[in-house]
Amino acid sequence: MAPAPFSSQHKNLRSGRAERGAALGMRIRHRTASFNGRTPTPEHRPLRRPETQPELLPRGVEKSPAEERRVPEKLLVNVTVQRSLGPVQVVAPTDWTVGDLVAAALRRYVEEGRRPPVPADVPSSAFTLHYSQFSLERLNSQEKLINLGSRSFFLCLRPALVSERIEASAVAEASPSTSTASCSKQT
């Protein structure tokens, strides 16, 4: 049995919706008034400032120098090896010297199988450590890491050893070599 097309029951439902829709329309118009610039003026209240307690932190008592500057036990140091793509990361105790860092960085470089490979016959003392590839000044191999003030360094072969190796390879190949691998000549 199909309901009558225009029964009174349908009219009542529709009229209820219309009444609800009218009430919603009023609320919507009231809400959208803020977009048309008709907003009530907000009240400006002063912000409440937090109370401070200066007695909690006494300024007359100073800390001892040992408490003031804490020295970490180990440092994460980045060492970029010349002609290598990225830095080698070495966790180094603060009492290490520059020479210890060079040896550890070379060990780590070889362990990771980085390219270009480091010649096996060259000792770690043949390498110099610099603050950056643009720094001509090499660091003293006896200086402590904690006193250097940096955690990023650049490692390269000593220029004298580089020129000796180039000459030796040129004599062995009987052709002049045009590449230089000196730290001071690299930009």
UniProtKB/TrEMBL annotation:
Residue ranges, annotated region (Disordered): 1-68
Domain of life per record: Eukaryota
Compositional bias ranges of the Basic and acidic residues kind: 41-52
Chain intervals with Polar residues compositional bias: 1-10
Residues annotated as domain DUF7054: 72-156
Alphabetical list of InterPro entries matching this protein: At4g22758-like, DUF7054
PANTHER family registered for this protein in UniProt: BNAC05G50380D PROTEIN, EXPRESSED PROTEIN
Protein name from the UniProt record: DUF7054 domain-containing protein
